[in-house]
């Protein structure tokens, strides 16, 4: 039975090549996924996602794998950068596709607005124009309404349902109502836009004044590459997915509960902590808390390890991990 499952067919070729290279490095090292997870600081579940092409490994994980397998980190990082660009392009194509779908839906919705019903209906004037030619007269550029040619030689078309007492081209009444409807819509939009503009420029001074005093906790550009959250925005997030694990995390507290090892992992960069349990039995449970604030929990499956989602923490000593084993034993971590 092969060790690796086939990579997804829709995967970008650049990302596919990078994932295949990672698989070759792991195979050549002779390490199991559990050993790779233990030595790199990234969980076994995360490595399964990276090597399966379901998630692009963060840069920190790549550097850690290079150290574990004795690979030149510069070469591996170069391949990662190419794969990261391909991954971003794929996400952009997905976003553009979704935008096109929304535009199509908007056009379909707007297409429901048509000329007001009258005479023989919206299709009747089209049928009449196809069957009955109009007089040969000049047309102004950009308009589809034929102009009447003065003089006694003008041919008067037969009266139709849309004609008024003064005559007119086929469908003139329907077209006039359509043009009036469009002009009304455009006028309403202009009034709304002017009201919004005047509100922003005139009446919103008092409300806009406090805005410069609002200072965000952190700015995205100050975060290292691959890190996607900080403090409160990390709460409830996966540390591996958000780039807070690996080189950006360290074990700050641990405890041996039965045969299981329980740890508190803390990221100073993300200002968040999470709990991890290893060498455990299926069904063992681990939780994380910071002071009186409870966090998430993780339950061990066949991988014999689990970790919780992140919880914002004021420092390395603010978080505590506790475990409840299926054997009935319980315990919490002690800061190192």
Fraction of residues in helix: 25-40%
Q: How much beta, percentage-wise? A: 15-25%
Mean pLDDT metric = 76
Q: What's the multimeric state?
A: single chain
Largest sheet, strands/sense/barrel: 6 strands, antiparallel
Q: Report, as a whole number of angstroms, the end-to-end distance.
A: 43 Å
Structural class: alpha+beta
* Helix-strand pattern: HHHHHHHHEEEEEEEEEE
Mass-distribution shape: extended
Radius of gyration: 34 Å
The total of beta strands comes to 10
Number of helices: 8
List segments where confidence is low: pLDDT < 50 over at least 5 consecutive residues. 119-170, 203-209, 214-220
Walk me through the structure:
The structure is a single chain. With 336 residues, this protein is an alpha+beta fold. It has helices spanning 13-29, 33-40, 44-51, 59-69, 73-110, 124-131, 172-203, 205-208; strands at 250-257, 260-267, 272-278, 285-290, 293-299, 306-307, 311-312, 319-324, 330-332, 334-335. α1 packs antiparallel against α5 (73-110), α2 packs across α3 (44-51) and α4 (59-69) packs antiparallel against α5.
Which descriptors would you attach to this protein?
336 residues; 6-stranded antiparallel β-sheet; alpha+beta; 10 strands; 4-stranded antiparallel β-sheet; 8 helices
């Amino acid at each position: 039975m092969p060790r690796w499952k086939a990579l997804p067919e829709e995967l970008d070729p650049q990302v596919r090549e990078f994932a295949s290279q990672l698989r070759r490095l792991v195979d050549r090292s002779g390490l199991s996924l559990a050993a790779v997870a233990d030595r790199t600081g990234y969980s076994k579940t995360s490595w399964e996602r990276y090597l399966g092409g379901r998630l692009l490994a963060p840069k920190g994980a790549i550097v850690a794998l290079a150290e574990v397998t004795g690979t030149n980190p510069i070469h591996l990082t170069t391949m990662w950068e190419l794969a990261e660009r391909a991954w971003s392009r794929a996400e952009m194509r997905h976003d553009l596709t979704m935008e096109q779908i929304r535009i199509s839906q908007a056009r379909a919705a707007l297409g429901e607005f048509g000329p007001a019903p009258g005479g023989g209906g919206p299709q009747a004037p089209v049928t009449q124009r196809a069957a009955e030619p109009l007089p040969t007269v000049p047309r102004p550029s950009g308009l589809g309404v034929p102009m009447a040619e003065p003089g006694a030689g003008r041919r008067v078309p037969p009266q139709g349902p849309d004609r008024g007492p003064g005559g007119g081209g086929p469908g003139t009444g329907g077209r006039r109502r359509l043009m009036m409807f469009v002009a009304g819509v455009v006028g309403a939009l202009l009034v709304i836009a002017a009201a919004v503009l005047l509100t922003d420029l005139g009446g919103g001074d008092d409300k806009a004044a406090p805005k410069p005093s609002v200072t965000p906790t952190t700015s995205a550009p100050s975060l290292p590459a691959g890190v996607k959250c900080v403090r409160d925005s990390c709460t409830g997030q996966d540390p591996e997915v958000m780039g807070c694990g690996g080189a950006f995390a360290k074990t700050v507290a641990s405890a041996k509960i039965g045969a299981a090892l329980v740890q508190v992992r803390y990221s100073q960069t993300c200002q968040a902590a999470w709990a991890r349990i290893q060498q455990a039995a299926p069904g063992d449970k681990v939780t994380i808390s910071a002071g009186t604030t409870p966090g998430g929990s993780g339950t061990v499956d066949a991988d014999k390890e689990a970790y919780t989602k992140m919880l914002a923490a004021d420092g390395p000593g603010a978080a505590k991990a506790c475990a409840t084993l299926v054997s009935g034993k319980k315990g919490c971590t002690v800061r190192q």
